[in-house]
Amino acid sequence: MPLPQLLVGKVAAVTGGLTGIGRAIALAYIHHGAKVAVSHLGGPKEDELLASLRKDVNEIEAGAETSRFITVAGNISQPETGVNFVAKVVETFGRLDVFVSNAGVCQFADFLELEPSLFNHTVSTNLSGAFFATQAAARQMALTQSPPGGSIIGISSISALVGGGEQVHYTPTKAGVLSLMQSCAVALGKYGIRCNALLPGTIRTQLNDADMSDPVKREYMEGRIPLGRLGQPPDLAGPAVFLACEELSNYVTGAQILVDGGLFVNLQ
To answer: How much is the CA Rg of the chain, to the nearest whole Å?
Structure first.
C-alpha cells in the first residue's frame, strides 16, 4: 500500500538541491505532493546532474498536466542569491511554506596549512549563505504571505557537536547553522514559523566520496556506527518530510535531530 502524501498543497524550496541530501529531500517532497524549487550553482558542468534530476522528477509526476518543479541557478554565498531564489519561488508558485537551507561545501584540509581562501569560501557558503537565504525565506513567510507561518530546516551536521582534525574550518560553520536555527526559532515563533536543524552523520555524498572510497577508512567508520552502515541521502528525506508536515511536527521548533545511525552516542 503506498504511503499517504503528506505535503499536498505545500510549496517547498531547497538550496543545493541538485545532488546528495538536497536532491533526496526535493524528490521526497515532490513524492509527497509538494511544489518544489531547488537552487544550484549553475554552469555547464551541472547539465548532466540537472538532466538526471529532471528525469527522476518526471517519473514521479508521470501523467500530471503541469509540473510542480523548477530549478534556479545562483551562488548561495552571495547575499542576493537567496533573495532572488525566494522571489522566483513565489513568482512561480505563489507562496513559500517550507525552506530547506542545505547548500554547503566540505573540503578536508590540514589546520596548519589551511589557506584563507578555503576558510572564507567555506564560511561564506555554509554559514553566510545559510543566513541570508534563511532570512529571505523568513521575510516571505512572516511579512508577505497570509497567513504567516512555515517551516525552516537547516542542514547542519554531527560535526556541529564533535571536532574534526581536518575540518577545523568546516565544523564551526555547521555549529553556526545549528545555532542559527535555534535563534530563528526564538525570533520567528511569533509568526508561526518553526525552525529546526537536521544533523546528518557520515552520509555518502559527493562531498566525501573520495574520502570514503578508501576501504580501510570506510570499514572503520562503519564499525563505529551502531546500525552498521554509512548513511545515504534518502535517510534524510523522512526526517525532512516530518519537519515539513504540520500535522506531524506542529509543536517542534528549535530542535536538533541527529540522523547518524547512532554514531554520536557511540563515539569514544
So the answer is: 18
